[in-house]
Specification:
This protein is mainly β. It has a domain at about 25-75: OB fold (Dihydrolipoamide Acetyltransferase, E2P), CATH 2.40.50. About 0% of the residues lie in helices and about 40% in strands. The chain has strands spanning about 25-30, 35, 40-45, 45-50, 60-65, 70-75. The protein has a six-stranded mixed beta sheet, with no helix packed on it. A hairpin with a 3-residue loop joins strand 5 (about 60-65) and strand 6. The protein is globular. The protein starts with about 25 loop residues before the first strand and ends with a strand.
């Protein structure tokens, strides 16, 4: 049993986990896979970024357009 004030195991607190990207960031990424919806995705420090209209193996310059709790969305700019 956990003490009332101890953190629960296996969960990241929003206060301690910093997302490695923010809206407006421009990054060079390599698409490492394809998600369930068919969008390619890249990883930045383990954080997943979905990029529509991309395929595995491609490299793109992207702009971050939306950041959520555990993943982000980017758009291809070059």
């Amino acid at each position: 049993m956990f003490a009332e004030n101890s953190p629960k195991r296996g969960k990241r607190s929003d206060r301690t986990f910093r997302r490695p990207v923010k809206v407006g960031d421009v990054l060079d990424v390599k698409i490492v896979g394809v998600g369930k919806e068919g969008d390619g995705f890249a990883r930045v420090s383990g954080f997943v970024i979905f990029i529509p209209n991309s395929k595995e193996g491609e490299s793109h310059k992207i702009r971050i357009v939306k950041v959520l709790k555990s993943y982000a969305f980017g758009e291809i700019i070059e």
